Structure formats: C-alpha cells, structure tokens
Target: TRAP transporter substrate-binding protein
Amino acid sequence: MHHLWKRTLLVTGATLLSSGMVYAQTPDLSDPPEIEGDTVGDHGSVTLRMGLGLAESSPQYISSQYFADILDERSEGRITVNIFPNSQLGDDVQMMEMLQTGTLDMTYPSSSPATGYVEELAVFDLPFLLPTREAAVKAMRSDAAQEMLDAFDGTGLKALAFSENGFRQLSNSAREVTSPEDVAGLDVRGLSIRTMENPVHLAIWEALGANPTPMAFGELFSAMEQGVVDGQENPWSTILTSNFHEVQDYGSETRHVYTPFIKMISQRTWDELDPEYQELVQEAALQAADYEIQLSSEYDDWAREQLEERGMQITRLNDEQIAAFQEAVQPVYEEWAPRIGEDLVAEFQEIAESTMTE
Model:
C-alpha cells in the first residue's frame, strides 16, 4: 500500500513538466519497504495532523507518507495522518510550540532548533564532527542519542526517532567559496548567511567571518531573492526541492555539519492514544526514519547534479581546503564542548573514528 508517495512524485513531475522544464524531477528512489506486522485492535478513530518544513518532493515528505501508510494499513484505516508540507503551519520552532499546546499533533523538525529543549542535541551542530553518513547513522542509533530523545520527557514533546536532514552545504549569490577567506571577504564584506536559530551555528559562521542571520526557513527564499541575505546552508536535497538555485549562483560542498531530523508527537496527543496505538506509532516512526535515511542518501548526489544542470556553480572542496575550514572553526569547540558535555563530544568522536577503521 504505497500509493501516496507515488502520487506525490507523479504530481510533482507533472507540474514541472507542464511549466516547460525538461529536468529529471526525481532520482530513481527505492520503493518503501513492505508493510509488515499484525493489525492492532479497534481503539477508535484517530486523525493526526503533521506539519513539515520541506516540500512534497523531499525525502522528509515521502517518508512521512510511508509513516502514514503504515498506520493506515496496520490500524485498518482507523489511524489517519494528514500531512501539511512547505511550512504551511509555521517554522520548526512554531510547530514544536504548537505540539506543546496540543494544537498540532506531530512535526518533524531539525535537531538544531530543538536544542532549546535538550541542550545535548547541540553535539550534532558541532562542525565536522561526523565526517560520513555511516558515522552519523551510528551516532543517531547510539545509546547516547536515545538518551537525548528520552530527555524530552516533561517538555510537552514526545521524541520518537532520529532520521536524516543531511550534510549541510553552503550556497550564496555573491562569489565562489573555496576557503574561509572567501566567506569573510577580506577586502570586501563578509557574506551574510542565513542560519537556523541555533547558537552553535551562529558561532560557526562568526568564526568564519560571515554575518550570520537567524531566520525562519519559510522566509528564506524571498530573503535571498530580495538580497536580504547572500546565502544559506542546507543539504543539497533541500536546496534543490526548495528551488534555491533560482536565487543562488554558487555552491560549495563543505559538509560542515550533519543535522538529523527528529520525528515528534505532542505529549498531549500521545497520552490520549491507547497503548496499542502508541506502540504502533513508535514502530512506524522508526521504520519511516530508516526509509528516510535511505531516501536521503539516494537523493543527495543526484540533487547536487541537478543543481549543476540548472546553472549552479558547485565547488567540490578537496581535503586541504576542508582542513582550512576545520582549523578556522576550532574556537567553536573551545566554547561549546564544555557546555554540551565533553564526555558526550568524546563519545561521538569515538563513534566517528570507529567507522573509519571498520
């Protein structure tokens, strides 16, 4: 029962083709796994409203439809999920606040704005900490990561699972960036870069000499179009599905931060669910998270290639260039590792190192 996600891809493609575009609209994505497991008992009908930040063609949305399919099939239609993409209901911060008040049931924010609830999540924001997707997935599935999800207890939010937002890359409309000096500008002004509302991200771009500007994601396209900011940083898939290439000429494959998503449900909503429904929602969240990570890995390189086809000049930084960025952001570790927890930072560093030797 995978009709929902297929319909999304077809509709997205049809819309763009009708506009005269000839680009491939989606990569050859893996089908969602078959839905397995027993159906649950009849504990009444439930409709869950889920707000997302990204577009219908994003891995975030496609995997959320798979989540909805699991609940629909295994509850025999008694649990329905209505998904609202494109920041229709607000940005990540606003939607988490709506979960706390019970005016929204579910959302799927980046971990970065959630550090206001669980400060340890800021470990994911440390620059160049997780160098590969293998290291990132191992970190997200670690006991330390589960403790972070459990730490939402008492906040009004129930955190169900980590999945992939992805490696963040820099784009801008001013100039090619191959070094920290290009960010800072030297004889010209530093780039104004939109960041998430997260103090570690602000510290990263300040260390690089930029002018970081926190801004809601839903406001970003128009801000770049109007020249309010020069650029932003997001995974290639987000840059593509948000059409940022229309207002950004340059991209740099910095991979400076790996950011997870967190699938969340309102604690009020959770408490109203029958325990058997709760167990199903948790299982579906984990299964959809695994699928989203797979989709993101398939989408990433394809999205970069598509951005280049659509006119963005993308620079792939070599090891020496990446090392220059790593050196420039060392003050971020000096400031933030003690606040996040040096033991936690060391544990994540060990996880990263272990994947390099396996």
Q: What stands out?
A: Residues 1-20 have pLDDT under 50 and may be disordered.
